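Next up, sample data:
>
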Amino acid sequence: MENELYKNMYYHLFNAVTDAIRSDTKEEADIILKNAQITTEDMYVSGEE
């Protein structure tokens, strides 16, 4: 179901943003956000729920 895919993508990104906010350095936050973006894009392309 497409809605589940978008819901899972949203949760993944939202949690990554929370982790980035709590990170100790800007560099760590950048890595967290970049990895979340890559993972979420992969989820979308593969249709993974």
Residues 12 and 29 are 15 Å apart (CA to CA). The mean pLDDT is 94.
